[in-house]
Amino acid sequence: MIKDIKILGVIIFISLILFGYTFTFDEVPEILAQGMQPTMMPRLIFSLIIFLCFFQIYQNKSLKSENKDIIKRNAFITFGYTLFIVLIADKLGFLISVFLFTLITPILWQRKDYLKITLYSLCMTIFVFVFFTLVLQLKFPQGILEDFIIRNFY
Amino acid sequence: MIKKIQSIFLCFALVVTSLVGMGQVTTVAIAADFPSKPIEVVTHAGLGGGTDTTARMLLIRTRKNLKNNAYITPKKGDSGNKAMAYVKSKPKDGHTVLAITPTHLFRMARGEAALTIDDFVGVARTTVDPIVIFVNAKSPYKTIEDLIKAGNKKPIKYGGTNVGSVDHISGLIFAREAKTKIAFVPFEGGGAIMTSLVGNQIEAAGLNLDEGKDQLDAGELRVLAVMADQRMAALPDTPTLKEKGINASFATVRGVVVLKGTPQSAIDKLEKGFLKAMKHPVYQNYLQGAGLDSSSVAGSKAWDTEIKSIYKEARAALVSLGLAK
Amino acid sequence: MDIFSNISLILDAKTLALILGSTITGVLIGALPGLSSGMAIALLLPFTIYLEPSQAIAAMAALYCGGTFGGSITAILINAPGAPPAAATAFDGFPMAQKGQAGKALGMAAVSSVVGGVISLMVLITFAPTLARIAYKFGPPEYFALAIFGLSMLASISSKSPVKNLIGGLIGLFVATIGVHLTTGISRFTFGVDELFEGISFVPVLIGLFAMSEILVQASKSELFLERIKFSAIKLPSINEFKSCGKSILRSSGIGTFIGILPAEGGTVSAMIGYNEARRWSKNKENFGKGEIEGVAAPESANNAATGGAMIPTLALGIPGSATTAVILGGFQIHGLRAGPYLFEQQPDLLYTIFYGMLLANFIFLIFGLMGAKIFSRISLIPRGYLWPSVFVFCLVGSYGLSQSMVDVYIMLISGVMGFFLRRYGFSPAPIIMGIVLGELVENSLAQSIIIFDQNIFMFFTRPICLLFFGLTFLSLFYRPIKNLIMKGKKDE
User: Fold this and answer.
1) What was the ipTM of the complex prediction?
2) Which among B2, B16, B24 is the nearest to A147, CB-wise?
3) Scanning A64, C2, C96, C408, which has its CA 20 to 30 A from the CA of C399?
4) What is the distance between the alpha carbons of residues C299 and C434, in angstroms, rounded to a whole number?
5) Could you say which residues of chain A have pLDDT below 70?
6) Top-level CATH class of B130-226?
7) How many CB atoms lie under 10 A from the CB of residue B135?
8) Are residue A121 and residue A149 in the same domain, yes or no?
9) Which CATH fold would you assign to the domain B39-128+251-321?
10) What proportions of chain B, in percent to the nearest 5, are helix, strand and coil?
11) Interface B:C, Cβ pairs < 8 A
């Protein structure tokens, strides 16, 4: 395998798709198009990206890809859990999500002092609530707690 | 150890359920009254912008007048459409208020918005800021007629904020009504337009008075006309386009609306609370700082009529320009 | 000069306390990723009506100064720039913290920030009305030329392969094209998501590329890795290290002040250019990106100098020099005040209050930063299992907070994954950030120029400032090859 060919291949592929996508843009009314079409810049960018990727592949053609450290399973688990938390944050509310995230992630990362983890998790949740919601008055989706928080803290 | 965690979990679950329970009970108990929970004001712009600041200034005293809390929910996206869709999804009880600008009305007029003109009722107008046509003080254009004449020979480079905004539409309609030509140069904001005008990059611009006031006083810019039915108190010598027989009155108007179907008693209470807040020196000072006066403020009836008429005119104009179907 | 006689303006307990409080609030809020000083000021605006106008404005200005500095703390400690201008600080600051030199990086950041800030303030108080007029000279064509000059740095901004840097920069440019097109109102690459209509917000992308991708990197490291050299982490930089960075700090302060004056530009661009110039002229070029202390000093002095720079057109012309100063102008309005030529002639007291407020803010965060460095640097010693989940919480809250939309959180997550893979394959985040920052400017200013020039692009060459920047661009691209040619010629003789 040539060095970096995988990632460059992916970039070329995505660029080609997006290049094609520029043909679906709305037509510009006469009164607005004044010398520059909205498709011009993106097409220029994608052409350059594709050209540079091929150039890099050509430059690397004699280089073998080196062995990278494998991505540990933990990274995938962490990412999966992060994704899960982000997806439920909207429904369940930020506070509960923050609590769940800070409670489970340290365990995923091989920490074993459960009492400390619980304390940490509670502190973090309370801090987020006090600082962001009460002090800065930022409004987060609070999911099932929404009604209660709006009634008592705004 | 595990037992400890279990008990903590249990406690937490207990607290959560009891909290949720409390919330629901209170809803049922006082739903008949208005306001029974904090008022939510939905804006379409980012923090610190004109719409956001106006809404925040409005709420300072409104909270006291309604003896109720109020907060702002910014719903950015799709030129106000996101905010309109959000308000549409809320119950028609007066607790959700939408802050609107001409941008919203233009979106509706182009038939692209989540709400239509008949879906809401005006509650109060918060600011009126007419569009003023500025040129560079060193330019040969001494009157609006000079500018119109020049435009007939070669399109005037006319600056304004982004496409579809009140600056853009008003510029196009001014050109059409005055039978002249403009080449619209869109900018990211009022500051950039003003610097480009002083720097002679563009020939004319439609700005709010406040955006060019300092440069006007410093003798770098000149005002040619105001896009309003009456002359501005701050510019008594500047003619309006209407006086010149050009039918183009546009302003950056801001105000608040609620969904149609909201009980009249709730609308009345809101209107009273807002109007009283806007009479307070806190809000009046803010208006003065922005170069406006107390004529900005108007009640539900006047504001509602105004919205409808802006919409009607914009719709006709947009169709004739080919920007709406 | 009457500069010094006016210091009594801020010498009462309430004003001093306000400035102290807002500077420290600024540092703390600036340090949190996603929360910027601009946002904090916007949220606190309505409450300032209860203050004296001059006190309120001085407090806002102090908050602005503190916020710009605060961004560097998290950039160094957890690779999560607290604000966009601090992005360039993370390039070398975080590697330093990883090597156990967090204290050195933080100390250097504090000192270079103050030097940059104070220099720009001196420029502000002495030359503001004259310098502010530069803003008028910059129309769309000049901004286009400046943006091209910025883009010419893409290839060289990090020590990774130049071709990869260019590809990264182009990816950044692409991200900037998402959203509605300024001149035609056409929406591009929004895929039916309304929130993307106004473009991808920069902050979530930044948080994703830096902090979120770092979380993923940390997750795949083994737990044992963390046993660090604990004692050196809290050490501050030595006098010699300050001396060796002196030139970079001065150069960056100049760059920052100048770029800060230009209304469309701000701290982020000046920090990037400051970083790139420090690298260009440095003897340890290879060490940049791996924990070079000059790589912390340069962007920090540049972005803090841009703070004072941005206040120049704001105060002298009433044109905001940056997003935060736009909010400060809003503050003027609330108090019925006006910025502009007016201020300098008729209300010098207000001007001096702002000036001293900002000056004092700089010294407050110097002390706070140096004393705090010892405490903050311990953050890099917190066990990973607690540190990185907390970072994620701030990523989540910070990316949501700005425009209060879940879409920004998804953007943060996607950028995190992209950043993780791009970094793995040797792409640096530096050119990507640079591309995003300059992308909109390049396209919009080109489109505006074309309209202004009646579609004749050769008109660019009739503008002196454009020619100057095109010349600089040419030099920065071809300086080395030309120098080599000349040297070769000399040898041949």
Assistant:
1) 0.90
2) B24
3) C96
4) 13
5) 1, 29-35, 65, 67, 153-154
6) alpha beta
7) 23
8) yes
9) D-Maltodextrin-Binding Protein; domain 2 (3.40.190)
10) 50, 20, 30
11) 145
